[in-house]
Amino acid sequence: LDRAMRGSIWCLLVLVSFVVAQERLFVETLAENPEEFHEKVIVVWENLLGRETMLELDGYIKKNFLLFNTTSYMVPMSDGVELNTIVNFPLGHRGEALPAVLDRTPYNAAAYEYLVGALFHFKGYVAVVQDMRGRYKSQGEWSFWRESPSDGYDTINWITEQSWSNGEVMAFGISADGIAATCQEGHMPPPEGLKAQSLWVATGDGFESSYYNGAFREGLLAGWLEGLGEGWYVPTLTAHEAYSPWWYPIDLSIRWNNTNVPAVHFGGWYDIFSWGTMQSFVGYQYHGGEGAKGNQYLVMDPLGHCGGGEYRFP
């Protein structure tokens, strides 16, 4: 396992080097301490770009690499609420139409803008990162993921209308961001510009993932919401312990046939959403609509959420 991990790390280091070469950058120094940089890459890889690591690495990239040309917008949704949306262009972009990758997050879009760009710019993507409704600089009120189908739909339509867009969008997200991305396929119809999804340690069934076998996952959800500063929402969840139409916006299991794009589902055997990840794969792969059915990929690693549950043997 250690040998495989080392190989993966060096592959990622090669990728970083390729990004630099691809953009024809001249960087005075990779880092004052190459070993420190190496360790940062290890942490990123082992934690599957978890939240704390993303924030740390994003700051490092921002400090050491002048890669990006960034513009922020307040994008209006269909109900008039405006969401903070950061558009990040590859170095040297001259206005040509490019595909976009979209990450909608409750964790502060401004903290992730450079990292998402670093992951996808070298492939020719414009990176778009958005604060979810009610979070950070976005207007509106936090509502779990219940507004994600419509907000994702409106955002993708806005992207495809821009002069720098070629009309194609890939939805990307890890954990909470991945759930937001999954919900975009719940809009009826799905956004026309959505062409693919990359869903990491996420779930497509908000009810079963909140009330696993009927029991409210208080330790998981209450702690998470309180950490976000949205603890006030816990009574709303507990008031809906019985399945009802209230859950429809975050439950793809009732309309797998609405899905219509290829997707990669990346999960962990010991992840908090392992069941949801596998259910999403099965739903898309075997019950999905045209474009989704038969075009899914599932990857499961032997870890927990974002690398949690790791244990190193001597």
Q: How does this model look, in words?
A:
- The protein has helices at 2-22, 34-46, 51-64, 109-120, 148-160, 176-183, 206-210, 218-228, 234-238, 274-287, and strands spanning 69-76, 82-89, 98-105, 126-131, 165-174, 194-200, 211-212, 215-216, 263-268, 296-301.
- It is globular.
- The strands form two sheets. Strands 1-2-4-3-5-6-9-10 form an eight-stranded mixed beta sheet, sandwiched between helices. Strands 7-8 form a two-stranded antiparallel ribbon.
- β1 (69-76) and β2 (82-89) form a beta hairpin.
- α1 packs across α2 (34-46) and α3 crosses α4.
- By secondary structure, it is α/β, with parallel strands linked by helices.
- The model is unreliable at 1-35 (pLDDT under 50).
- It has ten helices and ten strands.
Instruction: Please state the overall shape, judged from the principal axes of the Cα atoms.
Output: globular
Compute the number of helices: 10
Indicate the proportion of strand residues: 15-25%
Q: Give the SSE order as H and E letters.
A: HHHEEEHEHEHEHEEHHEHE
Subunit arrangement of the protein: single chain
Runs in which pLDDT lies below 50 for 5 or more consecutive residues are: 1-35
Structural class assignment: alpha/beta
Percentage of residues in helical conformation: 25-40%
Concise summary:
The protein has 10 helices and 10 strands.
Question: What's the helix and strand layout?
Answer:
Blueprint: H1 2-22, H2 34-46, H3 51-64, E1 69-76, E2 82-89, E3 98-105, H4 109-120, E4 126-131, H5 148-160, E5 165-174, H6 176-183, E6 194-200, H7 206-210, E7 211-212, E8 215-216, H8 218-228, H9 234-238, E9 263-268, H10 274-287, E10 296-301
Parallel strand pairs: 3-4, 3-5, 5-6, 6-9, 9-10
Antiparallel strand pairs: 1-2, 2-4, 7-8
Helix pairs in contact: 1-2, 3-4
